[in-house]
Amino acid sequence: MNKKLLGTVLFFGRKDCQYSKRIKNFLKKNSSKFYYIESSKIGEQINLRYNDLTYDYIFCFRSYYILKKNMLKKVKKFAINFHPGPPEFRGTGSVNYAVYENSKFYGCTAHIINEKVDYGKIIDVKRFGIKNIKSISRILNKTHKLMFRQANIIIKKIILNNEFIENQILKNNKLKWSKKIKTLKDLKKFYVIRKNISKKDFLRKIRATSTDYYKPCVYLYGKKFILE
Fold first, then answer.
1. Long-range contact set of residues 166-170: C-beta below 8 Å, sequence gap at least 24
2. Second label for 133, Cα 20 to 30 Å away, from 55, 72, 152, 160?
3. Do the bridges between strand 33-39 and strand 217-220 make them parallel or antiparallel, or are there none, so unpaired?
4. Domain spans of the chain?
5. Which fold has domain 8-180?
6. Which 8-state DSSP code applies to residue 192?
7. Per-residue model confidence as pLDDT tens digits over 105-158
């Protein structure tokens, strides 16, 4: 019996991400033709070496690259993104806003990619409780692990069932994205602590912005001070 394959696949992953590497290896084994592009930072200019090809599927996992209309036109079946956040939180810094708003749950969303960021039809949503998780880094680590499991299951089910994605979209057609979306510019403003902030709001903001790589800041007399 011939092994079922996905066809021609383009995968966008993230540099130095163990889960991107594992998905890449799996897709490579289960595609008739496979192409890979990785990104390492927001706003990075990626050289689309495969721009003249067509694909059966495009998958995006923790990729910074936003697919444009001309690329989406090259997809015969589906372009699918795995978003590190539930539908209530679109765009950049989802986890920061979720923590700041004292959300009880966080998670990840698999969805069809369209021309709007984090707005395509929803395939699947996974959630977990964050009330007792104090660290943003811990929430993100758990999110990325859950995203990997979600991606792994969905890709395997696509291989087994050609109608899986259509069925999932129909099943989850009542799930809707938030109308609000946050940009990188919004997130940079969010990281700035106002001078007249209340103590309660200050503590919420500290919890929602302190990570291993990024810290909140204040501006005084034209100087920027990072809060450790």
1. 168/123, 168/124, 169/112, 169/121, 169/122, 169/123
2. 152
3. unpaired
4. 8-180, 191-226
5. Rossmann fold (3.40.50)
6. B
7. 999 999 999 877 778 999 999 999 998 887 899 999 999 999 999 999 999 999
